[in-house]
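Hi C.,

You asked whether I'd gotten around to modeling the 197-residue construct. I have! Everything is below, sequence then structure, no commentary in between.
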Amino acid sequence: MWYWIFRFCAKILLKLFFRLKIQGLENIPRKTNFIIVANHSSYLDPLVVMAAVPKKIHCIALRFLYKFFWLRLFLQLVEALPIGSSSQKALDLLNSNKNVGIFPEGGISRDGTLKSFRRGTALLALKTGRPIVPCAVLGTYAALPLEAKFPKFLPIKIKIGKPRYLLKEFEDVIDDVYLQEGIFKIRNIIKGMLDVG
């Protein structure tokens, strides 16, 4: 229940103050659960994903955020997963037809540019067979960069790409090369959406 309350509030506030635009809602899978993957350049990004996607997303959050009481309470209420103990929990959620959200850069980009992606996302997709839905979040760095104390009320947009499957067939072993190739493809898709603007 709390997730939907926070989502409703986030959507209203983002539309009111940041003129949030959502593109590609038709790309959200209807017949299967999925893994949302997005770039990360601001604390606003998880709220944008929450507001844009009309399905519950269990986002993986940095563990240090749980040190702050209000953030910890919020993350617990929306059933986020603290990074570090999240891998098995994320697998369990995906295998239980729940959706998982990941920011694979491993933290907020300090200069707003897209960083390298960690391979964990590809591993989850390969192990569960669930599609990855790439998302490009634009405008959040200008609105609230990491070091800013107050936001600027500038336009924000999220572009939701078509779902991609990283299925490995006929082999039991998932090697590092395959994982790197898979996550590199997803990163390029998001980079392409960011470059187009």
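If it helps when you're writing up: The chain has a mean pLDDT of 90.

Thanks,
B.
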